[in-house]
Design goal:
146 residues, mainly alpha, 3 helical TM bundles of succinate and fumarate reductases, elongated, membrane, SQR/QFR_C/D, transmembrane, metal ion binding
Length: 146
């Protein structure tokens, strides 16, 4: 018994940017970079020095006093949040069949992503490693400043 499958209709070519293709490429590229960033982050925070027992305000303050770690953690924040939001966008596009509900989910996802990116970036870039009044929590280099 043979089964004949009809030839699928070809979609007309659209001009402009193919956002689905670029979203797919972003997921692959950011995934590779995120693996390096995440394992570097885990190695430095959990394996170097006293491990997890050394993580406190002074540890974070000492790390974020170095521009290298500010860039590292900012990249980690932005790539991970946008990667996750793009994955959620794909799920909403696949499973939200009602156009109004899909639009609400997409705008909510965009709003949540933007808020988290802004707040996370503010924390990283406005972090003060040497606040006044917390002498017992400060990293060593803050004690030399006072």
């Amino acid at each position: 018994m043979t089964v004949n499958i009809e030839t699928p209709r070809s979609l007309p070519k659209r001009s402009g940017i193919n956002l689905e293709k670029w979203g797919w490429i972003y997921m692959r590229a950011s995934g590779v970079v995120l693996v390096v960033l995440i394992f570097g982050h885990l190695f430095v925070n959990l394996m170097v020095g006293d491990g997890v027992h050394a993580i406190d305000f002074a540890f974070v303050g000492g790390k974020w006093a170095d521009p290298f770690w500010v860039v590292w953690d900012t990249l980690l924040l932005w790539l991970a949040l946008i990667h996750g939001a793009n994955g959620m966008r794909t799920l909403v596009a696949d499973y939200a069949h009602n156009p109004t509900l899909r639009r609400i989910f997409m705008w909510s996802l965009l709003g949540a992503t933007v808020v988290l990116l802004v707040l996370g970036s503010l924390v990283i870039f406005t972090f003060d490693p040497c606040p006044v009044g917390y002498d017992d929590l400060l990293p060593e280099f803050c004690k030399d400043i006072k």
